[in-house]
Amino acid sequence: MAGILSRRIFGFSLSLILINMASIMERADENLLPAVYKEVSEAFDAGPIELGYLTFIRNFVQSVSSPMAGVLALHHDRPVVLAMGTACWALSTAAVGVSQHFNQVAFWRAINGLGLAIVIPALQSFIADSYMDGLRGTGFGLLNLIGSVGGIGGGVLATIMAGHEYWGIPGWRCAFIMMASLSLLIGVLVFLFVVDPRRDPLVAVGADDDTERANLIMKSTVPPSSIWSSSWLAMRSVMKVKTFQIIVLQGIVGSLPWTAMVFFTMWFELIGFDNNSSAALNSLFAIGCAMGSFLGGMIADRLSKYYPDSGRVMCAQFSAFMGIPFSWILLTGIRPSVNNWNAFAATLLLMGLTISWCASCANNPMFAEVVPPKHRTMIYAFDRAFEGSFSSFAAPAVGILTEKIYGYDSKSLKSVGGSAEGALALSRGLFMMTIVPFGLCCLFYSPLYIVFRRDRESAKLVSSKEQQLSSEIDFVGR
């Protein structure tokens, strides 16, 4: 018996390792294109508006396709779903690296969004099922921390490689092809070795009586309904949850600054920083975000023990509010000069440390508590669908503000040593797309102080009824 349990725990641990590796590659893939905006701009004669549309296309397709992950996860093991999405994004990433026309890049970015739409909600629900209440903030924070390693690696690698040629091929193209190959390898490993925690939830971190109850529900002998009817029922159940509606509302505006921040690398290079210095600045920001996400998740877990109905909300509002002063300091308070690298570095590190809490401290753990376990992938999928579809407009909005209102000239990209006028125009566009959304995000969290407790109790009641129904059917079957 002990040997069987040991093998189950080993398989569960290996699954978590591979899931985190998949998260690393996913974050690396997300950071590839923004890290080489300048080189892509020169290769395809594209300005900030066109570059913003590339991010918009991927994010928008990813958003509208996210419910597909919820449908697939209802009827297939999540390792299969993750492998499908990983293969899709890996192949499209390689295709971007060999594209010769801007329209080709745009098409493959859309396919890349489809792959990410399948992967991200499945990853989130996998973590939600792998950690119990009171530990999920730490679990999601750890996922973000490890995933950020991939984001840092992808951004730094692409930024550094972009300044060189390899075998006569531009470095940014080589970075895309190499990252695609690694992603495809991880996808194969996930398919072969990862075990869905829904098969054996009793080995989850912090497993308790609630886990056993979820296990009974998942193994219910209720005859399965059709794919479409069960999917429609899950969608309706998720959409009615007030906590979901409020978090999506704040997320629509709260994710705008993060989408706009894809222009940071380009802004640093316009100031005059070289590829290595720009990569180092982005790395410090990513390190701060990674540490902050993990720290915020742990603090919220501790606080929720004393204030179960409001602790996570307080942490999220603090994090959203901190985006306001740090955006002002970074974009307007520091003089845009290569001599101020240390000031930029310190600000970016502290900014990342404080503004990155919301997903791990509140959004993702709270989602897991307000729906039954079988609907978790669906709620994460719809969160991405609504938030991502609106936030995808942020990147082109920055481009429009920069070019049409603040007078940015795309020819300044070719200036040696940067462009002071271009940097000023881009910083103003970024400022408008960060400080206002952060303030609204902080405000929109407030109703959760009232509705979260009701939704959590309702979810527990539904789970109890499903457990009772499962027990009755089992008794009749005997």
From TrEMBL:
Residues 15-457 form the Major facilitator superfamily (MFS) profile domain. Its main location: membrane. The chain crosses the membrane at residues 81-100, 106-128, 140-163, 175-195, 246-268, 280-300, 312-331, 343-364, 385-406, 426-452. SUPFAM superfamilies: MFS general substrate transporter. CDD domains: MFS_spinster_like. GO terms for cellular component: membrane. One of its GO terms (molecular function) is transmembrane transporter activity. It is found in: Membrane. Residues 1-24 form the signal peptide. Keywords: Membrane, Signal, Transmembrane, Transmembrane helix, Transport. It is a multi-pass membrane protein. Belongs to the major facilitator superfamily. Spinster (TC 2.A.1.49) family. This is Major facilitator superfamily (MFS) profile domain-containing protein. The lineage of its organism: Eukaryota, Viridiplantae, Streptophyta, Embryophyta, Tracheophyta.
